[in-house]
Amino acid sequence: MRIYVHTLENHDYSTMQNKLSFDEKERAAKFLNQGDAHAYFVKEAVKRRSLEIITGVPAENFIFKKGEFGKPQIAEKINFNTYRAKGAIVVGISSEAIGVDIAYLDPAIQLKDYAEVALTSFEHATLDNPKQLITHWALKESFLKFIGKGLHIEPSEIGFEIVDESTIKFISEHQDLAKNQCNYCLIELEGKWVISICFKENCTKLDLNFLNKQPGIQLISNTSEAEPRFFYQPLFQFLF
């Protein structure tokens, strides 16, 4: 399993267009904000390039189709997720089911504004600051991507308890959801973002690749026996 992380900076990303499809280039041209266009270039280019490395298929040849719940798929039996938060993107690639999410740790978020729509009653009673709320939201997103249903399940119907650095408990009244056997890895980057990775229990390798710099990293929790390994590779070297 490979995770690619890029924190967005003021670079000229237009050279990445050769990795994108015609439709993706058209979509990028419609962004009114240059920063959003850059973020889109990076997310799609990194996704295509990482799939190219793993499958041997040229990056520009991938055709993405949506599955039953809208999750992008490719013909090659590879599972992948991408997500963009304020100032950063994450791409996860695996031969097994995987769910990844990255969230910006916004200190201005108010717990009361999200309690009913995002939290279980247990979480509402135990979480007491924005960082905890955002971390639990990232866990929910990664789990829902892992099972391939996105937000077709209400976030308030599933919850988590982060017990310690090696234990995260899944909480839900949906017995069918509780049957999903998976591990979680939570990582904080530079005090600005939290990454949540949900993956199969049989995963033996968890590699995180940082594509513009080696950031400050704090491992919040990892429930698997696979020790995270951190690598740095410059974005443009990676792409070309």
UniProtKB/TrEMBL annotation:
- Tree of life domain: Bacteria
Signal peptide bounds: none
| Single GO biological process annotation from the record | lysine biosynthetic process via aminoadipic acid
Read off the InterPro entries from this record: 4-PPantetheinyl_Trfase_dom (IPR008278), 4-PPantetheinyl_Trfase_dom_sf (IPR037143), P-Pant_transferase_sf (IPR050559)
**Designated name of the protein:** 4'-phosphopantetheinyl transferase
Keywords, in A-Z order: Transferase
User: Which SUPFAM superfamilies does the protein's record reference?
Assistant: 4'-phosphopantetheinyl transferase (SSF56214)
Where's the 4'-phosphopantetheinyl transferase domain?
A: 97-198
A GO term from the CC aspect: cytosol
Pfam (any one): ACPS
Q: Which GO terms describe its molecular function?
A: holo-[acyl-carrier-protein] synthase activity; magnesium ion binding
The UniProt entry's sequence similarity note says: Belongs to the P-Pant transferase superfamily. Gsp/Sfp/HetI/AcpT family.
